[in-house]
Amino acid sequence: MAVEALAQKVFRARIERLQGDLASRGADGAVLFSPQAIAWLTGYFTLPTERPLALLVPRAGDPYAFVPGVEWDAASRVPTIGEVWRYFEYPGPAPPLSYLARRLKGLGLKRLIADAPGWGRRYGYEGPQLSELLPGTVVEIDPALVEGSWQVKFPEEIELLRVSAEWADRAHRLLQEAIRPGERELSLSIQVSAQASQEFLAAMGEGYGGFLRGGTPVSAGIISGARSALPHAMSRERTLQAGDVLISGVGVEVFGYSVELERTLILGKPTPEQTRFFSAMQRAQEAGLSACGPGVPLREVDRRVRGVLLAEGLGRYLRHHTGHHLGWEGHEPPYIDAFAQGEMRPGQVFSIEPGVYVPGLGGFRHSDTVLITEDGAEVLTRYPRDLRSLTVEA
Which of 262, 269, 300, 382 is most buried per CB count within 10 Å? Predict the structure, then answer.
């Protein structure tokens, strides 16, 4: 099942959409410093370091890339980029952004919108902000300049997320089948990630890739025992034991897009206490999933989820909101939160992941990826959620 990267027409449509926004806002161009935004807009994936890079999108015409020498050849091969400006290296005789400012002045741009004031502090980089180097130019900062556009997925993006979801389900099956007492948490995660990645790459074919440097396209991991009560715990080389609560997490990168799939598993026969917390969490997630749909306030979805858990007297075990937008970045706004503004819209993709975290016992969290449609919602990740299916024989 080979899957192709997004076609060039998709990137050009995104660029034209941004140019339309610039025209409506009276701006001459946009300057993007975010590598994630540059990749989404043009298909140019790069490895961000201390060396600044940027993309200029004029109100009309092809974008210009501003890159260090190490990126010049790669950027020059990107079809959506019209011209590549380069400087040799950082540090150098002058701040790199001074060369960018000189280029911008040469184009006579008077009003720009940038997604950040400058390159920031990556790897210890130090340098002036863009506005300091362009005293005669208005530089408006809008962090959501491009970010807001990927909050509603194009049909082509949704298809890549469907592929990610299908493989996430497959990888999770491999993970669950490998769990048994005596296995070690970190070793098992690495083993399954490698196996699932090999199967995935064989199916994707030779053209897959271009957005990662090494690493596995499929990541499948677990946190076990009492440490699963830490929502963002890191894996350790801990030996799995009968009676453990485990929280799994699986992601599959399909040309930069990935769903989120997490499950709570019990290694051995569940205790009454484990059953109680698992069941409450599952009911809360079902309430959240059933609440999703176009026009539904984000805070209403969170309210319904919390309502289930608070009615069970579990308020002291809550640690986070119900979910977040996702697909291109791991976490994207908007968030499903008690104080969230706005409503769900068709084309948006959210995680629904309520959690109950009991110190000394474990954590209980499922996460599923949900696509908002014109007339409802579709759960893209379809791995079983019930306790019987997620009980692993010890």
Answer: 262
2 within some domain = no
pLDDT tens, residue by residue, 264-320: 999 999 999 999 999 999 999 999 999 999 999 999 999 999 999 999 999 999 999
Contact of 272 with 251, CB cutoff 8 Å? no
**Whose structure tokens read 């980029």?**
81
Stated pTM of the model = 0.94
Q: How far is CA 61 from the centre of its chain?
A: 30
CATH number at residue 377: 3.90.230.10
Whether residue 3 lies inside any domain: the answer is no
Q: Identify the three-state secondary structure at position 343.
A: strand
Give the three-class secondary structure for 271: coil
**Residues 190 and 329 reside in one and the same domain:** yes
List the structure tokens of 168.
């996430």
Chain mean pLDDT for the chain: 95
Structural domains of the chain, count: 2
Q: Residue 103 belongs to what domain range?
A: 8-148
Residue 144: CB atoms within 10 A of its CB come to: 11
Roughly how many angstroms between the first and final C-alpha of the chain, as a whole number?
35
Q: Is residue 342 part of a domain?
A: yes
Query: Has residue 1 got a pLDDT over 70?
Result: no
CATH number of the domain to which 35 belongs:
3.40.350.10
Are the beta carbons of 128 and 97 closer than 8 angstroms?
yes
**Residues 47, 91: one domain?**
yes
Instruction: At 297, give phi and psi (nearest 5°).
Output: -60, 135
In angstroms, the Cα distances linking 173 to 156, 176, 177, 340 are: 27, 5, 6, 34
Verify that 189 and 65 share a domain, yes or no: no
Answer yes or no: do 231 and 131 share one domain. no
- In this predicted model, what pLDDT tens digit does every residue of 95-143 receive, in sequence order? 999 999 999 999 999 999 999 999 999 999 999 999 999 998 999 999 9
Residues 144 and 164 in one domain: no
The pLDDT score that the predictor gives to residue 2 is 62
CA angle 194, 196, 201 (to 5 degrees): 90
Spell out where 192-236 has E strands: 218-224
